[in-house]
Amino acid sequence: MMFNQTDKPTADGSNQSPATLFVTDARGNILISNEFTALTIGIPLEELLRYNVQDLVKGGYYSESITMKAIQSKQKVTQYVNTIQGFKVKSTAVPILDNTGEVQLVVTSSSGYRGGSSIITNSTLPPAHENSKRSATTGSVFKNNGVVAESLAMKQIIQVCDQIASYDSKVLILGESGTGKSVIAKYIHRQSTKWNGPFIPVNSAAIPASLFEYELFGYVKGAMPGLLNEKQGLFEVANGGVLFFDEVAELPLDIQAKLLDVLERNEFRRVGSTELIPIQCRMIFATNRDLWSMVKKDLFREDLYYRINVIPIHIPPLRSRKLDLVGLISSFIAHFNKIYDKKYVLPAEEFQKMLAKPWHGNARELRNYIERLIVIDQTGLCQQQQVEQVTDWFTLDHFIQANRSRLNGLKEYTALTEGRYIQQMLQVCGGNSAETARQLGIDRSVVYRKLKRMEDILTKLKA
């Protein structure tokens, strides 16, 4: 049985709104959920799927459980429920009864939410039931080999990739910068029969035109003065795998002509050699440019365009895929929490802010934004744990007296003060380090260096 979000999707999924979802059995054990639900209470989806809804109430993650109300009354229940992260969610729990009138399943979903302020609490979730064997694979979030696909548009792209993965047809991936073109290319590689072969990316814009032929086709000894050894080209290195041409629109026209010749004959020669070498790799191309407009302006060869555009895949911008935005937020938070050994959870007001942003840099911009959030929270949390907020001289004097023997003179006191002031300015500037540096009259590298210095001192105090 498969359950999706309660909102009816549009053709491209662009109007889908994030909605919470629980599917439980008759005892309240969670069978299915999604990333947005996990986000609203600050628990990873993989962990959430191991619990009973009553555990969430006991742990303070929900004010009450309408799922249990529906189980007890055997009737639909609708009301607002407050979450630990400050979300006020209008939820409806619908019991599904069997032939004897007993509850078999309960589907609890939201039709809207109201963000509030983050709630800080010391509550902890009780241990999961030992006999629970549910796993995150039953969640509604669609994750395959590193691809987050919650929206209808991305699920359709994944389905297309699964269908074409076993063929060597050329693929052209289109989309704005940061939408995940290389992620999709790697997904196709992993799903294909060439999964155990190499995945070789080629940044078409980064290789000088004069060297492109040598990099792509390789060369034999003595092909040019000073070339004392032979070298394999990228076509040979990618044998049995995938050669991924990123930013293919940036190829110079003369290189385009040589690439077209290779694609038509499916073989090539090393520079300085007469021996033909067959191509034994799949080729995937990607660009953030409008190739057809470039063709009409004679900036890209029309014959090459048709040659590489066998299977086009267009990735919509992140601003039109709100459900994917939720999944990526959850994924990036988990990633950076692991890297920085943190337990950062997203407040409701911050989530609303992120949901409203246009994200012109797409997933790449989102990733950097979340990393910045967690890094800033990391320094702020250390400061809150180790140093009382300086609101008057008494507090400052108390801190100095308590740490006089552990701080190494005036420099360390000054470093703490500077770090705290920079931290406050970062909050005023919305986490924008460049603007903070401008207002403080220092270089942006100084901002990071002084924050790091403060963190090092606080770590020493904690030891």
UniProtKB/TrEMBL annotation:
SMART domains: AAA (SM00382). Signal peptide: none annotated. CDD domains: AAA (cd00009). Residues 147-375 form the Sigma-54 factor interaction domain. Pfam families: AAA_lid_14, HTH_8, Sigma54_activat. This is AAA family ATPase. Keywords: ATP-binding, Nucleotide-binding, Transcription, Transcription regulation. GO terms for molecular function: ATP binding; sequence-specific DNA binding. It comes from the Bacteria. One of its GO terms (biological process) is regulation of DNA-templated transcription. SUPFAM superfamilies: Homeodomain-like (SSF46689), P-loop containing nucleoside triphosphate hydrolases (SSF52540), PYP-like sensor domain (PAS domain) (SSF55785). Coiled coil: none annotated.
